[in-house]
Write a structure and sequence with these properties.
This protein is mostly helical. The chain contains 13 helices and 3 strands; from the N terminus they run E-H-H-H-H-H-H-H-H-H-E-E-H-H-H-H. It has a 3-stranded mixed β-sheet with strand order 1-3-2. A hairpin with a 2-residue loop joins strand 2 and strand 3. Helix 3 runs antiparallel to helix 4. The mean pLDDT is about 85.
Amino acid sequence: MEVAVTGTVRLSQVEAPSIYIPFVLLGWSALLVPVAVYIDTSYYIGAEICLLAFVALMFCERFRPGSTLNFVVALPIYLMSATVYAIVLLTVTVSGEMNGFYVLLAIVSGGGKIFADSIVVRKLTPASVVTSLVEGRRVTMSDRGLVVTIPWASDLFTEFSRWEATLIWNMRAILLVTWAWAFFRYAPVMYSSVDALERAPHMLALAGFPMAFFLAPLWQMPFMYYCHKHADQLVDAAEKQRLREDKATLKAKQEARENA
């Protein structure tokens, strides 16, 4: 297949409306419910309008593929963890339920996120990006350009030194210990009242801060930047990969006929 727009690299989630639309309109709408309940309904309505605008831009990007527009459309995916963190922090603060344990949990999860992702970004290179996509068969071609599926873990495209791996795992361990500490200290609050509005901030704090740490790593954006910057190299690599697969398929068919 010949790629119509060779300079365009598109995120796989944006390529598939069946994934993108439910993610934006359903997932994000549910995520923003605390904004309407604890902060202001007008902000929630404004956010919903923005979500509809993102979906409209997604359809525009399908008809007019472009790397810049694709980056804008993919922002709800890239910024998921940052948004979860901000919503949980605002909700717990505005509700008046912020305490020392939750402050510690917020610092560990937010600071740990930035720290861990900064190590990955520091190790990220164009060569490792291209290699991980090609060897992992995470790049395909469509009539709108290259479609990239970002690896779910940084271990799939980079190697860490012993001290870097130790730091990252220690940060995760600190987060889990802090989360467990806060959970056993404040989880009974969730069962001591029948008022859902009183329980919700505690549930959000205990689940949301750790979730923000593990969701949507921030290194996805520089990863895609390298994909855009080296699109021609990805096209060549994808073409070679496709030719190898075609040859392997043809050989398998020939062997099947001979054995029949």
